[in-house]
Amino acid sequence: MHDRAWASLAVACSFALGGCAGNGEGLDENGRPVDAGPPPLEATFDSIQQNVFTPICTQCHAGAQAPVGLRLDAASSYAMLVNAPSVEVPALRRVRPGDPDASYLIQKLEGTAAIGGRMPLNGPPLPQATIAVIRQWIVEGAQRPAAAGEGSPATLQAISPDDNAIVSRPPHELLIEATMELDTSRVDANTVMLMRSGRDGSFDEGNEVVVDGARIEIRSLDPTVIAVEMPDQWVADSYRLVIAGSGAVPAMDLAGQVIDGDGDGTAGGDFVAHFEIGGTL
After folding, report:
1. Which of 14, 116, 227, 271 could form a disulfide with 261 if both were Cys (CB 3.0 to 4.6 A apart)?
2. Is residue 161 located within the same domain as residue 273?
3. Cβ pair 120, 56 in contact under 8 A
């Protein structure tokens, strides 16, 4: 090929390459095509959520009717999995950090669980390579990346039941998740209180009843997940769970900053979540 032909070909190629990538159109902030789908599966919580839990597991495990109450949407899955006891086999944790063989999630995915079928139920099993990545995440401690917003006070979220939920059956437990690690020495009966309305639906009439006997368990540290387990004292009523962000013993993060309980962007204020148990118990 003559030199002039080579030069023409080089110019054409440079224009073609420039048209594909030079102006950045069709690419995200990381330079990937916007329609390329999620990045490859890695042994991190965010990657597993994006590649497995959200597209596959939430076909069933989402919303109020999720099997055994296990919701695997992005807002709920970590708190409902890590160190959470299995409903089917309470002696096992759904995810036991560091020990995939003792994690009920792995047993269900591999089809070795003593109760029920292999997950996903009525669907093709996950590839062994995918399960191996989930195993590796558990081996490495089942960590979740710290939330953004360093320096901001911790906020809390009701995971189960949802705030203002109406449930037909007493909850197995109450789950609250913080956006960062709290000083767990301050998460006890002095800062966590459950009460019911006295069957009038109001918490301003003076006939409210404090529900005693709750057992408080810290399920994970960073982020801090608080489980409030109750003995069989439930009655059909409206309930209010309060975690103190004010008063003498407010909940704090490890830096000594009081939680932003009321979600107004500043430290202080109680965290309050409501739910109602309907029907007659």
Report:
1. 271
2. yes
3. yes
End position of a domain, from candidates 95, 112, 139: 139
Same domain, 79 and 163: no
- Least Cα distance to 132 among 27, 45, 42, 40 occurs for 42
| CATH number of 243's domain | 2.60.40.1220
Q: How many domains are contained in the chain? A: 2
Q: How crowded is residue 181: how many other Cβ atoms within 10 Å of its Cβ?
A: 17
Tens of pLDDT, residue by residue over 181-239, are 999 999 999 999 999 999 999 999 999 999 998 899 999 999 999 999 987 789 999 99
In sequence order, which residues have a C-beta less than 8 Å from that of residue 196 and are 6 or more positions away?
208, 209, 211, 235, 237, 238, 239, 240
261 exposure class (CB count in 10 Å sphere: 0-12, 13-18, 19+) = buried
For residue 217, the surrounding DSSP H or E stretch is strand 215-220
List pLDDT tens digits, range 233-279.
899 999 999 999 999 999 999 999 999 999 999 999 999 999 999 86
Question: Is 172 in the same domain as 131?
Answer: no
Question: To which residue do tokens 């009439």 refer?
Answer: 205
Look up residue 154 and give its two tokens.
């911790």
Rounded to an integer, the average pLDDT of 167-174 is 91
Pairwise pLDDT comparison (191 vs 19), residue with the higher score = 191
Interatomic CA distance for residues 214 and 170, integer angstroms: 14
Q: What is the pLDDT of residue 19?
A: 34
Helix or strand run (H / E) with residue 279 = none
Beta pairing, strands 225-229 & 215-220? antiparallel
pLDDT tens for each residue of 88-139: 999 999 999 999 999 999 999 999 999 999 999 989 999 999 999 999 999 9
CA distance 70 to 117: 15
> 226 with 175, same domain?
yes
